[in-house]
Amino acid sequence: TRKIIIDTDPGQDDAVAILLALASPELEILGITCVAGNVPLDLTARNARIVCELAGRTEIKVFAGCDKPMERALVTAEYVHGKTGLDGISLPLPKMKLQEQHAVDFIIETLRNEPPGTVTLCPLGPLTNIATAFNQAPDIVERVDEIVLMGGGFFEGGNVTPAAEFNIYVDPQAADIVFKSGISIVVMPLDVTHKVLTTRARIEAFRNLGTPVGHAVASWTDFFERFDMAKYGADGAPLHDPCVIAYLIEPDLFTGRHINVAIETQSELTMGMTVADWWRVSPRKPNAMFMGDVDAKGFYTLLTERLARL
Ligand code: BDR
Ligand code: CA
Known about the structure:
Keywords: Glycosidase, Hydrolase. One of its GO terms (molecular function) is uridine nucleosidase activity. This is Purine nucleosidase. It holds the Pfam family IU_nuc_hydro. Strands 3-2-1-4-5-6-9-7-8 form a nine-stranded mixed β-sheet, sandwiched between helices. Helices cover 35% and strands 18% of the residues. The mean pLDDT is 96. The protein is globular, with a radius of gyration of 18 Å. It is of the alpha/beta class. It binds beta-D-ribofuranose and calcium ion.
């Protein structure tokens, strides 16, 4: 099994990613660390626990982390996720407790305690917690096995500005630190997540599972990212964050290219842009596996089959 820390800002698609991880015996979730992003921190920390309880996994440790980006003011996305961050279905408030430890301290402690090269970080939101941990404890950087993250847009452009994808845009300084860390990074950008569309038939397949989890996932995907038909067509909306977890389980679903990715942190026009050096015209070494394509059918087969186990 692969040990992972899921760093997240749920978010309906974060919620589906968490459920996919919970359903997958290949993965051992050491903890779920929450960050401000789609909605403020109190809500993301609450939503992560709602999701664990929905799956009956109240033993999972959930931590609250940074409540705002490193330098910039927090930008949220209620227009995508609704007021609660998990709009689409109303679920009971969590009974399970939030851990008292700060998410950043948990990340640092875990990387120091686990054998080097055995922990994979899975960021599904702004990179604030991760970069803050690296700043506070530079010794942990070389202990990370790999980072598999959702963020960025390359040929696809941005979804919050013409140039930037939300997770990178919210905390470009943090993203810059992570992409310069030297850790091997796998990037699931909009180029991939816009190819795994939640069509009617796929949502029905979730609902037909006939379980509370299937019902919740159908309700979320019915709500989430459906606000803009012109953008994604009439039958489907993207499903971002589960791509990260699907990659850990079935990497062959994805194909990409090893390149250098740098983050724009200065220009207001292109703030948070993921700049790819496709043709090795800079002295910067490749630091990231950019994923550009996905077997969407295989992805939904995996996701639906796993969710059926919960
Ligand atoms: C990313 O931003 C959030 O709205 C989603 O949860 C996803 O992580 C997509 O740009
Ligand atoms: Ca997210």
